[in-house]
User: What shape does this take?
Amino acid sequence: DAGVIQSPRHEVTEMGQEVTLRCKPISGHDYLFWYRQTMMRGLELLIYFNNNVPIDDSGMPEDRFSAKMPNASFSTLKIQPSEPRDSAVYFCASSFGTPKETQYFGPGTRLLVL
Amino acid sequence: GESVGLHLPTLSVQEGDNSIINCAYSNSASDYFIWYKQESGKGPQFIIDIRSNMDKRQGQRVTVLLNKTVKHLSLQIAATQPGDSAVYFCADPPPKGGSEKLVFGKGTKLTVNP
Assistant: This one.
């Protein structure tokens, strides 16, 4: 089992550029979550999907952030335009059955916006 | 300048000692709790869970205790090893009917000294 796969692992970009983070959940999992982790705010849930449908996006900071899940095996988190305050580690996680059950996290994407 | 961020509780122990990490929760209706471990540069990983109809659950070298009266959880690690050095989070899934979000505590940083 490959686990949750995220790419890229590291991203350095300049302010104003578009950033796209990618996630492949564990096969068979029907919930997918995007989190952001910073020293200031800890681990924050941004959005989660169930069966490819966004269920709760109340954690998305602003309109510059968008997430999609076109199929059960792929999701993207896009930031456009990026700002230095978006610098963080972004995690994708997946689970099966309910969002309250054990979530399996990917290795994260470390984003630095200059 | 002075850095500002989350003040993570820290615990430093000697290799071979037992470790106890504590977590308080606020919702008396919470019925399920999960402990995650996050090693440096990695995503959180599931360690152990406990349901509210239990007071204690044991895993391999780990034990979780639940005190519903004072809304307190503890994670005990026996014979702590250097590989146990990580940040430990307790997560409190909402009870039935609540918002379907897993809320992570700010974490406790465990350092194991050889």
User: Anything to note?
Assistant: Residues 65 and 79 of chain A are 5 Å apart (CA to CA). The interface with chain B takes residues 4, 33, 38-43, 45, 48, 55-56, 91, 93, 98-108 of chain A (CB under 8 Å). The mean pLDDT of chain A is 93.
